[in-house]
Structures are given as C-alpha cells and as structure tokens.
C-alpha cells in the first residue's frame, strides 16, 4: 500500500493552502455545518474551487475540553467523505490520532495523515504511516483536549517546542517513517496560551532550522479572537477572525511555512500568492 506524497505544485513556489472539512457536530470553528456527509463532500469540492491545495477531513473535534469519539464513529464520519473527494482527484488529508483511521483513510485515497498528537496518542501510527508512504504531519502535543490547557507551562516556548518536536521526529524515524514524509506543526493552541502562540509564530525561523516543512494552523483560533476583543473584553467570535487569520497566513508564508491550514480558503489562497510575490521581489532586489 503506497501513496504519492503531497508537494508544492510544479512552478508554484509558494506556501500551500489546506482547507478544513470538520465532519463533526461540535467543532469550535463551524459548529457542525459539515457534519452531514453530503454537505461535507460538497464543501470539500467548494474548497478546491476556492484554491485549496489539500482538503483536510477530520471526524473528531480537538478543541479544548472536547471528549473523544469512538473508533467506529470516527471511521463512519471520515471514510465516505475522503473516498468521494479522492475519487475525483482531490488531494485529501485525514486529521486523526488513530492508526486504524489513518490506514482506512489512506486506503480510501488520503495522501496525508495529519496527526495532532505526533504519534503519542496511538503508538501504532508511525508504523502505519511508514507502510503507506504518505506525508505525515507530526504536531507538537502534550496531551488530549480535556487537560491540555493545564500543560501550557514553558520557560522558553520556542526552544521547548523545537526540542520536543525533534524528539518526536527521532522516534517516528526509528519506526520506519522516512525524512521525506515528515512535516512539522508547532501546534498553535495545543497546550499553549495566547502569549505562547505569538512566540511560536515569531519563532518560525528557529523551528524551520529542524530541516522539515512547517504546517501552520492559526485559523480562527482563540488567541486571535482575544487579540481583537471588544472594549469590554469580549473576544471576537471565531467566524469573525478570518481577517486576522489572513494576516497570519501572509506573514507565515513569507517567513517560510510550507502550508497553512485554514477554514476560509479563497482569501488565504490570495494571501500566499501575495507573500510569494513579495519574497520573489525581495530575492531579486538582493541580487
């Protein structure tokens, strides 16, 4: 069982855009809008039309405090959606912490496994990924949603995230995953408060020194809503932080991110192209 790793389209020379399809009733960002299978499939195709390079399909919410769903329920949610999208040539990612779901998703056509636990939630995950040959996103993670906020304790968040990701890479390599398969995600919002998230974003160059592509997932996360809070301190709603997400996308792409994971694809697809043009102009000015 093999697959073709996802890469930057030939000649694109820009950051990729991953669009999100949450096949869940309790997502923090869209409140179950795509929980219905037909709606999820339709939304996946819409994201491609808007410029998504990858469609990330997930069947389990990882918002703070979320409870886990059963294996059977997660499979029932994601496999039909992945199968329908992949059958039409859509590059699909599966957002899962379970090796069995990853295996079924790849068999259904997924070309990337986006594991927010970096292989910690299911020790079988690296071996499954190694056998498939798909791209593997290893995220910085310190624990499940129900208690991850208590783990947001750092002395130097960028240094510690870098060190912990490096250790995870060593372990998944030891399980047979190849270096070419690995993408790293610093895990914005996962066991990190707002101050930590901003430090991690500013530390993208240091994280890139690990030598692996970086996926950045800032879209609609709480630290943006809190930054844009009303005068009385009320955080801006998730759905109204898309403009702030655009700013993060442009900056992350310019700084060297391989891919951004977003909910509102069209404007973010524009943003990565602007960032690419800016970088090209800067490179030309330096010659």
Describe the structure.
The protein has 287 residues and is of the alpha/beta class. The chain is 43% helix and 12% strand. It contains ten helices and eight strands. Strands 6-5-4-3-2-1-8-7 form an eight-stranded parallel sheet. Helix 1 packs across helix 2 and helix 2 runs parallel beside helix 3. The longest helix is centred in the C-terminal third of the chain and has 21 residues, at 265-285. The chain is globular and about 45 Å long. The mean pLDDT is 90.
How would the blueprint of this fold be written?
Layout: E1 16-22, H1 37-50, E2 54-58, H2 71-87, E3 92-95, H3 99-108, E4 112-115, H4 125-132, E5 135-139, H5 157-174, E6 182-185, H6 194-202, H7 204-208, E7 215-216, H8 222-227, H9 242-255, E8 259-262, H10 265-285
Parallel strand pairs: 1-2, 1-8, 2-3, 3-4, 4-5, 5-6, 7-8
Descriptive tags:
single chain, 287 residues, alpha/beta, 8-stranded parallel β-sheet, 12% strand, globular
Whole-number mean pLDDT:
90
In whole angstroms, the N-to-C terminal distance is 46 Å
Shape verdict: globular
For the sheet with most strands, the description reads: 8 strands, parallel
Radius of gyration from CA coordinates:
18 Å
H/E series: EHEHEHEHEHEHHEHHEH
Number of helices: 10
Number of strands: 8
Q: What order do the strands of the largest sheet run in, or round the barrel if closed?
A: 6-5-4-3-2-1-8-7
Short structural summary:
The protein is of the alpha/beta class and 287 residues long. 43% of the residues lie in helices and 12% in strands.
